[in-house]
Write a structure and sequence with these properties.
Elements (H helix, E strand, L loop, with lengths): L5 E11 L2 E8 L4 E12 L4 E8 L1 E10 L2 E9 L11 E8 L4 E3 L23 E2 L6 E7 L11 H12 L9 E4 L14 H12 L17 H4 L7 H7 L14 H12 L2 H9 L5 H6 L14 H38 L2 E3 L14 H8 L2 H17 L11 H13 L5 H12 L5 E2 L6 E3 L12 E6 L2 E6 L7 H13 L8 E4 L8 H11 L9 H4 L9 H14 L4 E5 L6 E9 L4 E8 L10 H16 L6 E5 L5 E3 L12 E7 L14 E7 L2 E9 L4 E5 L3 E2 L9
Parallel strand pairs: 10-11, 11-12, 14-17, 17-18, 18-20
Antiparallel strand pairs: 1-2, 2-6, 3-4, 3-7, 5-6, 7-8, 7-9, 10-24, 13-14, 15-16, 19-20, 19-23, 21-22, 21-23, 24-25, 25-26, 25-27
Helix pairs in contact: 1-8, 2-5, 5-10, 10-12, 11-12
Length: about 700
Amino acid sequence: MELPDILAGPILRRTNPDSVYIWLATSRPFHIEAKLFTIEGSKESHTCSHFLLTDRSNTKSIQFGQQLFIHLIQVMPAADPFPVNTLLGYNLFLSNGESKKDLADYGMLSPESPYSIVYDNLKYPSFFISRQKSSNILYGSCRKLHGKGGDALTAADFRIEKVYDQLDKRPHSLFLLGDQIYADDVADPLLPPLIKLSRQLMGKDEELSLLDERLNQEPFCRSLFQARGRTFIMEHFCQFTSSHAENHLIQFGEYAALYLLSFSPQLWEFIQLQNGFRTFKEEDEEGNIYFAFRDEEHTLEEFFREYDSNKVRFKEQWNEICSSARSLRRISRLLANTPSYMIFDDHDITDDWNLSSEWKESVRQSALGEHVVANGLSAYWAFQGWGNHPEGFNHDFIEKMKSYFRGMDAASNEHKEWTASMWEYDSWHFVTPTEPKALFLDTRTQRTYDMMPKPVKIGWMVSETKHSPQLVSREAFKRASHSLHESGWQSGQPLIIASPAPFYGIGVIESILDSYVYPLRTAGIPVHQVMDHEAWKYNGKGFSEFLHWIFTWNPSRCFIVSGDVHYASSVSSNVQARDGNQASIVQFTSSPINNKSFTGIWGMLMKAIALFNSSKRKKESITRYCSSDYMILNQPSPSSCPSNAHWQETLHYLKTEKGRLLATDNNIGLLSLSGEQAENRLLFYDGWFNSETRFQSISFKRKNHHGE
């Protein structure tokens, strides 16, 4: 059975008055052209007219596999720049010498079609380039296909469905802040079809035994392609530390297949028509399930215990996958109609990615581990990164990508050059052309690691451990600053900073980790791998470096949007440095989109503690300072700050309508900036109903020319 022509997309990417980029994945080579239209009319008039604006387009295509072609279509103005604050529509035309089809031929432009990507009575997918006084931005992170709860991207689609023709209310951008896929946490029912789909897309399996000859031996040559069979390989061959590595993605085609299944519904129907998703019993009979206790050395009792446990897990994950798959038709419409900007966090590659210098060094010294990270980064670029700022990737970068994927020979010079280029690339950050502009930080590959000892105490034991990393090095901040100014942004203008890890978290959760959980490393327990300890707060020097650049840039208003932590919150801060510099910062966090984590006994306990403690802080401001040795310490009052402190600040947590400081259900944030006011709300979808909650809004005083 042949793969469908369109594997995923179209996905609307970077848009500005000079160019519009649209991403598409196909199973065959196509010559692709685009047309852009202006749309007049409204929902109330029950009619819309579409007028051709331009048919000038340029498509760059890369073949990653035998049946995997990624296209980035650039649509350009015929003469004057594209109009702003105007509803625009687009259509794509695919030709291969035999025929020419547009999106309508693929069922995407008819409201009655299951693959429709249009709203209401519109003829085409739509968007607008915002230059309004008001700004509405969707943002969030952490989306796992078998996550618990409804997918919050569905709530975002419902929102646009209501207001698609009301540009003052319609979100103009979608910021995805990391963990768009969970490469390290794949559901058992999903791995066998992912492996099969990978072979169809790429035309072959990668010759991984050239990187580690142990993969030719039993049980690894078998377990490599079985559900739940990869834990030992990932831990001991790759040197990874994920706690859910049973089905960890390894091959590029597997990463690609998961992206395709996460973005669009087309391949789900293909899989169902081809073989269907099999039951646990069927997969076991085909030899696609790995059992640690199946050999003769273990008792039947051990085997049946493992068998029953895996069977229950398989069924639970299958139900969660089905729920996510049902949401994809709305999610694909959202992505086709909303310019999106995407940065990675750890799960896009692997959990704990670059957690410490030891982690980075041990994985780099593993040929297989180094290869898997390069695969994950290449997949990120192909499916997410390329469309963020296409001009930022030069000819050499793209040629290295093309050269390796033409042969995919692990023993070749092309493989060495490709691997090195992925590991050493230092410019994954980018600036969006939105108003206000947003600087997306890379908090994963540009870290720096402090070697100074940090004293910790647990019980009667006293020891020294290493500090958490600085999430962005000074040199990386310099490159990001250069990109910011190259974008046309100027000091004194408002600025959004997108940081996957929150700059400000919920203090009670961070305190539990910092005071009670993380010191367990002293006893030799690898809790830094079990529970993330990667907020900016945990490294005072890195936190202060971030503040230094905010002071240097001196935006009129500084907004930080983040994800990662599996809860949503809002917090404002007023910071004053020792040299007199001041900044007002507002942090908005939205997470998870689809990976509800405060479940089970431990999760419910953490949630209860956080809610109880946060309730006591509703009327309080938290004052703290950074000591001369870069320790971030709370202080009883602003007057108690030492004279040699690097800076001091006052934090205020914002409440929701229900009086809470955080939300833990699946959500996506909607940030509205209008004049001198910022309002943050959360959109929810539980699988049946939409809902929302608002945090208290923030009003600003206008700065004078001294920044006061």
